[in-house]
Every structure is written in C-alpha cells, then in structure tokens.
C-alpha cells in the first residue's frame, strides 16, 4: 500500500511540474515580425475629436484588409466613413512585433499618418488595436483572412 501511494505522489508531482512548465515554454517562444504575416480582415470604429482635416472630425468607421509582409511593412485597402463622408482608400505603413506579442503599426495616407498599438491573439490569427493619436478614440479588430491548410 505504501509503495502505491508513493508512486501516485511521484506521478502527480511530475504531472504538476510538466503542466507548470508548459505555459512558460510557450511564453518563451515569443513573437516577432514574422508572427504577423498575411492578409487580415479588419474593422475599426471610433470617434475623431480633433484632426488636421476638419471634415474628418466626428464618428469614424473603417473596414478593409491589412497585408503584413512578415518583415515590418504593411499595406491597406479599405472603405471608410469619416463623419458621414464615405469612400475607398489605400495606405501603407510599417509595424513592429515585440517578443511579448504586442506591437505598433502605422497607417499612412497622403493626408495624415495614424499610429496604433496592438496585441496579437489566437497564436497570430488575429489582433486587437487602439489608435494612439491625440484627439482620436478608435479601436480595431483584425482576423487572418486565409489560414494555411495542409
């Protein structure tokens, strides 16, 4: 009886150690620019309180696709509604992904550049972002459009 209890205790201890180390091993893997690669469909919503172009002040919404190249460059194709003014647009930018899977990206049009902070979720299958520009309250959620299949 004593041997069975010792064996069970040893097995439980080993299982606890393995399960306790597993999250650390995953976290140590980290992220990089290569973790954010491909086409992501996104939606942005918010309010622009102050802008270099007065017609942009007011409610804002945008849907589109962001194409991350895995090396720090991003392009955008979108349709936007800025204070009721609607239309398509394109933009370019850069991005950086930190080891903790947070990062930044810019979205530059001929008229202005927006700055976002983001966090990757779902092992890089999506991201959540917020605009960091003064006078702008805007969040963005993106999901990978195409997932590689075996």
Question: What is the structure about, briefly put?
Answer:
The protein has 2 domains: 1-30; 33-144, Lipocalin (Beta Barrel). Helices cover 19% and strands 52% of the residues. It is an alpha+beta fold and 150 residues long.
Question: Can you give keywords for this protein?
Answer:
single chain; 150 residues; alpha+beta; Lipocalin; 2 domains; eight-stranded antiparallel barrel; 1 helix; 8 strands
Describe the structure.
- This protein folds into two domains: 1-30; 33-144, Quinohemoprotein amine dehydrogenase alpha subunit, domain 2 (Lipocalin, Beta Barrel), CATH 2.40.128.
- 19% of the residues lie in helices and 52% in strands.
- It is built from one helix and eight strands; from the N terminus they run αββββββββ.
- Strand 2 and strand 3 (73-82) form a beta hairpin.
- The longest helix is centred in the N-terminal third of the chain and has 28 residues, at 2-29.
- The N and C termini lie far apart (50 Å).
- The model is unreliable at 17-27 (pLDDT under 50).
């Amino acid at each position: 009886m004593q041997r069975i209890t010792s064996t069970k205790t040893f097995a439980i201890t080993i299982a606890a150690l393995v399960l306790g180390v597993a999250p650390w091993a995953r976290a140590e893997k980290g992220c990089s620019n290569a973790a954010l690669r491909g086409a992501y469909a996104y939606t942005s919503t918010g309010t622009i309180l102050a802008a270099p172009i007065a017609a942009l002040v007011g409610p804002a919404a945008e849907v589109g696709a962001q194409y991350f190249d895995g090396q720090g460059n991003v392009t955008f194709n979108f349709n936007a509604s800025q204070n009721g003014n609607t239309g398509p647009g394109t933009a370019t930018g850069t991005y950086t992904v930190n080891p903790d899977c947070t990062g930044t990206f810019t979205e530059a049009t001929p008229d202005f550049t927006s700055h976002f902070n983001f966090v990757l979720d779902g092992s890089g299958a999506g991201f959540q972002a917020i605009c960091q520009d003064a006078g702008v309250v805007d969040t963005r959620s993106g999901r990978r459009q195409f997932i590689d299949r075996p």
